[in-house]
Amino acid sequence: MRARDRLAATGADGGPDPAPRRPSGRTAVPGVWDLESLVAWKGPQLVRLARALLRDPHQAEDVVQDVLATCVRKWSRIQSVDDPSAYLNRMVVNAVTSLRRRAWRREWLSDPAELPEVHLDDSSSGHAERQRCLALLRRLPDRQRIALVLRLYEDMPDEEIADLLGCSTGTVRSNAHRGLATLRRLIAEEDPRA
């Protein structure tokens, strides 16, 4: 190791340079603070988050790739935040939300006459019920839908959901509670006998 490299890798006291700290005093990223290292450290977690929210691995990877491309363009801003890990999580959640909105708009803007007519028989009742549940979930506000999907479909604890969404566990519980109440109301509107 050259002297210049040794000097760059040591702190003021001659020991190893500590992890960079932000004004809050929290460690920004374990040991390093450059885009390449952040992506290597955080990339797999971002893909897992996107997969949990989308349930389509190809779309999830596309979302993360778009987020990382945005990171390159906005690196100076990301470098200045207190917690870049949470910032990247939030970027993924926002990208997933935007993707779902675009898909929802395409769904509603498509001509119903172009859609094939579906005839259900007794053997497809389970599939029909799942499709009905998914359609009802799509009608929920984003925060409520994300909280319910992560809690019920992905079986994640509220604390982990709160970390992913960058909010408190109380907010997660509140969104899940409101989402369930909205689902009950929507089901009652569709079928008053329910």
TrEMBL record:
RNA polymerase sigma factor 70 region 4 type domain location: 134-183
Gene Ontology terms describing biological process: DNA-templated transcription initiation
| SUPFAM superfamilies (alphabetical) | Sigma2 domain of RNA polymerase sigma factors, Sigma3 and sigma4 domains of RNA polymerase sigma factors
Q: Where is the signal peptide?
A: none
Domain (RNA polymerase sigma-70 region) ranges: 43-106
- Keywords in alphabetical order: DNA-binding, Sigma factor, Transcription, Transcription regulation
Could you state a single Gene Ontology molecular function term? DNA binding
Region called Disordered, residue ranges: 1-27
Family per record: Belongs to the sigma-70 factor family. ECF subfamily.
Which protein are we looking at? RNA polymerase sigma-70 factor (Sigma-E family)
